[in-house]
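In the design runs reported in the main text, the only information available to the sequence generator was the tokenized backbone. The following block is the verbatim input for one such run; it is reproduced so that readers can re-run the procedure and compare outputs position by position.
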């Protein structure tokens, strides 16, 4: 049986990016039950990719009851629906086999990975205060993509002088803006810029000097995205809601590294259930950005552990 339900998790505070604000995370939870054993997965439908809770639910409900992971890859396109079902099937297989998902996948035993913590878009003064509150964290992420980006970045650096900083422009810049800002980004110690240009317009990055490395996010979904990234990006951001699950995420990670890209593993704003499979992909990644549960006021009953070592692999009560 494949069951899909909606869950809502309150955020710890209003979370704002250049596309808008939210106060809660709306997710879909999938449960696949066979012979008395249940596997779980979670996805976050994303309007940027024309997904809604309703449309993704319909995709999941269209699947035949006995579908396996191999058939699933062809039955649904890369996206949120396939992600939740794929991760639920991995969880189910591991429980049936009496082992961990990482063992089924032939991966080394996972450990904790230091994760970025994302600061909500706000006034420079408020962002400086946020940065100071989280200055103990080794890696901060800033959502930009507005005309007032530099004052905000300056404020965050003032609030957290020792933290490593990465920037997500959310498709809000042009090649000219990136070139103008690059010297200032270097001066402020920015280690990476995610998706500076709209995904359909990033050919403008061809031939542009990249003194601050660029990471493809909206431009990279699965292995089929890689050929179009050549000469534009230095890194790819792997998110399971884009790849359509752990199966393709692991394959994309290997293919990206073979093609010479560094790897970042990111997330939508979801619960620990969504982060658990991503934590396997994040092993050894150049950047891990799995802070979704840190932004929530409430989480799953057996949440992931986050401490000074980073995000820890999940226990069997959660996933995997």
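Verbatim output:
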């Amino acid at each position: 049986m494949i069951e899909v339900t909606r869950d809502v998790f309150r955020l710890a505070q209003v979370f704002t990016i250049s596309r808008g604000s939210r106060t809660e995370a709306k997710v879909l939870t999938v449960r696949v039950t066979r012979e008395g054993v249940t596997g779980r997965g979670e996805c976050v439908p994303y309007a940027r990719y024309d997904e809604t809770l309703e449309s993704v639910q319909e995709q999941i409900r269209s699947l035949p009851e006995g579908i396996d992971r191999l058939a699933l890859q062809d039955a649904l396109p890369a996206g949120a629906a396939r992600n939740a079902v794929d991760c639920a099937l991995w969880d189910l297989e591991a429980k049936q086999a009496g082992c961990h998902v990482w063992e089924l996948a032939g991966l080394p035993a996972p450990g904790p990975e230091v994760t970025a913590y994302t600061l909500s878009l706000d006034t420079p003064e408020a962002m400086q205060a946020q940065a100071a509150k989280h200055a103990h964290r080794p890696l901060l992420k800033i959502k930009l993509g507005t005309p007032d980006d530099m004052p905000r970045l300056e404020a965050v650096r003032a609030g957290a002088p020792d933290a490593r900083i990465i920037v997500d422009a959310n498709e809000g810049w042009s090649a000219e803006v990136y070139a103008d800002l690059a010297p200032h980004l270097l001066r402020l110690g920015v280690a990476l810029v995610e998706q500076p240009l709209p995904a359909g317009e990033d050919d403008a990055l061809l031939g542009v000097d990249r003194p601050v490395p660029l990471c493809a996010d909206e431009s990279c979904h699965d292995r089929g995205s890689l050929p179009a990234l050549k000469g534009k990006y230095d890194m790819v951001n792997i998110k399971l809601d884009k790849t359509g699950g752990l199966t393709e995420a692991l394959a994309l990670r290997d293919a990206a590294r073979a093609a010479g890209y560094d790897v970042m593993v990111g997330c939508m704003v979801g619960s620990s259930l969504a982060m658990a499979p991503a934590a396997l992909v994040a092993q050894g990644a150049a950047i891990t950005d799995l802070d979704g549960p840190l932004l929530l006021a409430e989480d799953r009953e057996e949440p992931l552990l986050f401490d000074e070592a980073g995000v820890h692999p999940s226990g069997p009560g959660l996933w995997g």
